[in-house]
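W.,

You were right to be curious about this one. When I first looked at the sequence I had no strong expectations either way, so I just let the prediction run and decided to look at it fresh. Below is the sequence, 324 residues in total, followed by the output.
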Amino acid sequence: MNLREKRERYEADCLSPYAARSADTKGRALSAEKCAIRTEFQKDRDRITHCKAFRRLMHKTQVFISPEGDHYRTRLTHTLEVAQIARTAARALALNEDLTEAIALGHDLGHTPFGHTGEDALDSLLDDGFRHNEHSLRVTSDLNLTHEVRDGILNHRTSGNPATLEGWVVKLSDKIAYINHDIDDAIRAKILAPSDLPSSARKVLGETSTARIDFLVRDMVSYSANKNTVSLSPGVASVLSELRDYLFENTYAHQLHQSERKKIQTLLRLLFEYYLINPDKLPDELRFRCDDLSQAAAEYIAGMTDRFAMKCFREIYMPTAWEA
């Protein structure tokens, strides 16, 4: 019995009856030889962390666009925080930690530059819209991931309905992570003060990000233990939704942030229009793979980092003599 088989035996004997088992995966689009050391979900985790799209997350905005300071979150640090929270919850619930980690590490691979501002911009430019979770699957198409990992990535958004409990863990962990670290960054940016948060959220969830995350993970684990579902308790879920609504009204819609949003929307729209007129500037593989030019242009822009998008904009639209 090799190491992979021993791990599969451990999963069969020790995980929750509701957990996904790597030996029972629905497989990949293209058959592949099994590894003697790693399970199928471990292979997916490694494929994700070694791909170029994962490395680009380092230079993609989470919320605050081009922030001054080293401690604001990026899309990569957000991804790592989600993975940490999700792994903790999955282990406590005796779910498949490897599957959970793979979904968490891959869930935002298709995110645009400039965070949700970039996603909103591309969404308005395409007839069928743009959704980063769907684009994440396109980004990972050459990785030949398992069905379970792809399902978790596709369904991590609020409206999603993951097929595995591990996918549900990531979905909740994503919300727990971004609500709390966005509060942390907003306080750092002096948009919010800790005392500004709704009193109900502070009373129930805690006064600090650390306290809130700890409370929410504990609630998820205790409420979901020995069940074929993963969720927060109803009262806690309601308070978290209230906190999320507060963030949208007081942080994401902040006047300074809105002024930057308009600039980013203009930048991406002009890039989009440029590539429609100059399709030869798009990578060949995108032009050949996509059904139409608009989709190819959107996918190319979605893959850019913040700084690469700004670099392209300067090269296309700014005369060299104007550059500082």
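Here's what jumped out at me. DSSP finds 16 helices and no strands in the chain. And, maybe more interesting for your project: The mean pLDDT is 92.

Coffee later to discuss?

I.
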